[in-house]
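QA checklist item 7 of 12: single-chain prediction sanity check.
[x] sequence parsed
[x] length recorded as 543
[x] structure emitted
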Amino acid sequence: MKYPLPFTLVTILLSVSSLLATSFYVDPVEGAQSNYGSISSPWHTLEEVVANGFIRSSAYQPLPYDAQSSKLTAFHVNAPIQPGDTLILLSGLHGSLFLKNYNNALPITLMAAPGESPVLEQVHLQACSNWILDGLIVSSEPYGHYLSDKLIYLESHGWQGPTKNITIRNCHIYSTKSPWTNAADWVNKASDGLFIKADSVLAQGNILENVHFGLTASGDYIQAIGNQIINFSGDGMRILGSYILFDGNTIKNCYDVDENHDDGIQSFTTNGHIVDHNIIRNNVILNYEDPDQPLLGPLQGIGCFDGFYNDWLIENNLICVNHWHGITLLGANNCRIIHNTVIDPTPDEEPGPSWIRIDDHKDGRKSSNCVVANNIANWIIADADTSGNFELRTYQQYREQFVDYTNYDFHLLAHSTLIDRGTANYGNGLDAEGTIRPQGAQVDPGCYEFSALTSLHSSIIASESQLKLYPNLVANQLLLTTKLEWHHLVVCDVQGKPLIYLSQTNDPKTATIDLTQLSSGVYWIKVISRNGETTGFGKFMKL
């Protein structure tokens, strides 16, 4: 009988494997495929590295894939690149990446060299496992054309086999650098950003710009965390599987170019496919930043119209859309919609104002055992427990409750009558920014918990032109550039406790802050002048 290895031994073996791993370099400008792949003798392009068989991996055999009979068989066994290795890509055009049936025992990482901008025309992983893409640019525009296709496609394939255990992080994925201003260009040129037809995928910290559909999660156990979908003409994100987490994503600026009913986040069931046990948390959905944006049209917030949806949690989301479907579930069992702020920026105009709604399935079957609690919305319609909700429908009510609704700051004012008005029965422990609930006698409704510190931040928050933090979803090293006069910087937790001090360096416009001592979470940076005044704040998330 075979027994599993002890955890400590597994850890040791993985550590040894990482120590034996090799880094290779690929440089489209100075490299050549006849080189050795070292930093002084780099290969030419990633596409050529794959075509020349430089990567050892394993493929399912025999085909067509059968979960019971197909086994992984190694190929390119003498190739220099082994599972666990890293390919470091330098600036330039690396061609397209198409991998069919490349499955690794340990992840192979494809990453941008520090400060470099490697560009891939397209990425398609079919029947692949254990790959990491980090810091890459994926766009066909630098190649002189538009694909009108999927820029990154992770594909489980009926003949070739499943795709799983993939990480896509810190990548810039775009159809074009500047949004088109006419509908025909959007329809004919825009590509989908990241299409995941796979299981156990992490998409984190990516920027997807000027795309048709932003991120589609059509598989199970997919996590999309801290991504930005900026300018889109279809749906921002889609949930089409189970055990999926959408957390901390920003979805903004919808372009109305065709007959598609656009959604910030949409889900539906097809042919009996199950989409259960999903979490939508801490996301921001904005129909538009600029009311004069070209091709402006209505955007639905979170639309789930063809259930049943079972055991969903939708919490701490900020949704600002000019449509009645703020959050809608038609056919839901055991679902909770709590602590969301759902506001129509123009509540006096149709289609709107925005509701939170749980209702019957379109075939008449009833929803059951759901909770809609501690939300702020224009309208609540739900056959459910509806404790601690508040409806706001006029501009005057917006002005009385929110810091600056015209600029999408929906933090509660210090004199808001909604403070401490939520119900403890469904109060979760943290708000959308990581502030502990409750701050007062009781939790506050909506996605933001009022605190004196947050209120101060909102009053003097630095604009992006004054203070830039990169990456905003950061691992260990935070880069800062600022136009503000400062003497020192202070990193604080969400309660205002000072954790890191940094004095001004020789270059007053830039700073690098080491965050290795911090645990994961949301933090603030205070910018302090020589006379001790706080001149600005910035916010970031530590991974």
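[x] summary fact logged: Residues 298-460 form one domain.
[ ] second reviewer sign-off
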